[in-house]
Amino acid sequence: MNPAKVLQKEEIAPGIFLMNLETPRVAAKAQAGQFFVLRVDDKGERIPLTIADFNRKEGQIVTVFQVVGRTTAKLADLKVGDELATLVGPLGKPTEISQFGFTVLIGGGVGVAALYPILREFKKAGNFTYTIQGARSKEFLIWEEKLLAYSDKLILTTDDGSKGRKGVVTDPLKEVLEKEKVDLVFAVGPSMMMKFVSEITREYGVKTVVSLNPIMVDATGMCGACRVEVGGKTYFGCVDGPDFDGHQVNWELLLARQRMYCDEEEIARKNNA
């Protein structure tokens, strides 16, 4: 286990928090696309969170999370100087970074935080980076400036049209696929969004990588809770992913498994109220 102290906590959007953690051993090995697992206290559940940024020299990692249940609510209550009970990481396979050519990177909601270090590495590798960011409304568009720093083109979409284009991320995706020879699409965000992105890119024959977020427990490949079906075979999201071929993912099975504990999550939320 790695010690982890809260150095910074900031609510960057309604119910969405940025947390800077001091954990030198994790920061020393963190790479784009990886995640970590934490427990807020000794009796808490283990939850996976993305490594949204890292500073090896300072021994720090950054995560961004949305309060959706009991554990994230407890995490949001921590103060600067508090320490987590446990933190394990970095976990998962790093995202493949190469000079692909014309790349389209899509982030939905809080998934933008996971996308940012990947976008940065794609740009450093010499790719043309066409970035699409989507959210419900302007209040939930996070890290626009950080994305802009490494994007050759940045398109914003909101469901209500309060900022950028009114609509969803697949609208500009269709347009760029029609006009350009796209070499790779990378998407991270809600599973339903990634499913529709993959369905569209399949029509154009464009390689598509998605960062999946299945239910996880131990996150080391032992429990099997995070199993996903890709290309007709079973993989573990924690050790084989989180990145997979979007055209090969069994999306219906993934979505069904993500709904398995909805009743229990609601009970936990009410008990924490």
Task: Please sum up the structure shown.
The chain has 273 residues and is an alpha/beta fold.
Point out poorly predicted stretches. none
Query: What is the subunit arrangement here?
Result: single chain
**Domains, number:** 2
The dominant shape is globular
Which CATH top level class of the largest domain fits?
Alpha Beta
Give the spatial strand order of the biggest sheet: 11-10-9-8-12-13-16
Number of helices: 8
**Which series of helices and strands comes N to C?**
EEHEEEEHEEHEHEEHEHEEEEHH
Q: Main beta sheet: strand number and arrangement?
A: 7 strands, mixed
Annotation, overall tally of beta strands = 16
Q: Which CATH architecture of the largest domain would you pick?
A: 3-Layer(aba) Sandwich
Q: What is CATH's topology name of the largest domain?
A: Rossmann fold
Helix proportion of residues, in percent?
Answer: 25-40%
Rounded mean pLDDT score: 92
Topology diagram in text:
Elements: E1 5-13, E2 16-22, H1 24-29, E3 35-39, E4 47-50, E5 53-55, E6 60-66, H2 70-76, E7 86-91, E8 102-108, H3 111-124, E9 128-135, H4 144-148, E10 153-158, E11 165-166, H5 170-179, E12 184-188, H6 191-204, E13 208-211, E14 227-230, E15 233-236, E16 243-245, H7 251-258, H8 262-272
Parallel strand pairs: 8-9, 8-12, 9-10, 10-11, 12-13
Antiparallel strand pairs: 1-2, 2-6, 3-4, 3-7, 5-6, 13-16, 14-15
Helix pairs in contact: 5-6
Structure, explained:
This protein is of the alpha/beta class. The chain has two domains: 5-91, Elongation Factor Tu (Ef-tu), domain 3 (Beta Barrel); 102-258, 3-Layer(aba) Sandwich (Rossmann fold). The chain has eight helices and 16 strands. The strands form four sheets. It has a seven-stranded mixed beta sheet with strand order 11-10-9-8-12-13-16, with helices on both faces. The protein has a four-stranded antiparallel beta sheet with strand order 1-2-6-5. It has a three-stranded antiparallel beta sheet with strand order 4-3-7. Strand 9 (128-135), helix 4 (144-148) and strand 10 form a beta-alpha-beta unit. Helix 5 runs parallel beside helix 6 (191-204). The two termini are 30 Å apart.
